[in-house]
Structures are given as structure tokens and as C-alpha cells.
Amino acid sequence: MSGGWEGSNRRAELPPNWYSEIRPEVLRRDRRRCQWPQPAGGICGAHANQVDHIGDGDDHRPANLQALCETCHRRKTSAQGNTARWAERARRPPERHPGFIDPP
Ligand SMILES: [Zn+2]
Asked: How far is the CA of 28 from the centre of ligand 1 (A)?
């Protein structure tokens, strides 16, 4: 089932028990505290209402999941988005100048 997704870090579909079992389980395990590591040590610790894949988005085992607060989760996903956008831009050939017309 993973064919076609190799080389992509796009998140795969969530399992059917994600909302009913996996997600509440991870939030309970992490005591609804954001697990985002702080530069000075320790974790963010804010109220967590998101569950994030630490590594592989296809790996839904609790060891690969962590509770995050909305702020940290958004920061993480937007950083990934920027990386993907830059990669996309680098692959595209340079645009030709439109509207450049030789003078008569
Ligand atoms: Zn946080």
C-alpha cells in the first residue's frame, strides 16, 4: 500500500481508529501536555489538543506519536510546508520572460 508514496513526506491516510482510539490514547499518555522539546531543555508543556507523527507519517504506533499544542503543531507543519515548497521551486525550470519583445 505504500507504492507511489516513496520520496514523499505527504501524510498518508489516518487509520479508521485514529479518532476513536489512537489519538485519545496518545493524549492520555502525554497527559494532554505539549511534548515539543524546548531549546533550553524540557518540553513546551502547554495544553495539547493535537497528535503529531514524530517521524514517518505512515507509522501510527504510539512510539511515533506525540501530543502537541496548536501553536507548536502549526509551527512544525508550516516548516514542513515551506521545505516542500522550496523543493518544488528548485525542481521547476526557470520561467522565460514573458512580454519581452524585440524592438522593431
Ligand atoms: Zn507547545
From this structure: 16
How much distance in Å is there from the Cα of 38 to the middle of ligand 1?
Answer: 9
**Model confidence over 55-88: pLDDT tens digits?**
999 999 999 999 999 999 999 988 877 776 777 6
- Concatenating the DSSP letter of every residue in 52-86 gives EESS-TT--SGGGEEEE-HHHHHHHHHHHHHHHHH
CA of 93 to the centre of ligand 1 (A): 38
Ligand 1 center from residue 42 Cα (angstroms): 11
Give Cβ neighbours of residue 72 (< 8 Å, ≥ 6 apart).
34, 36, 44, 46
Under DSSP, the state recorded for 50 is E
| CA proximity to 68, closest of 47, 41, 82 | 47
CB atoms within 10 A of CB 72: 22
33-58 pLDDT, tens digit per residue, is 999 999 999 999 999 999 999 999 99
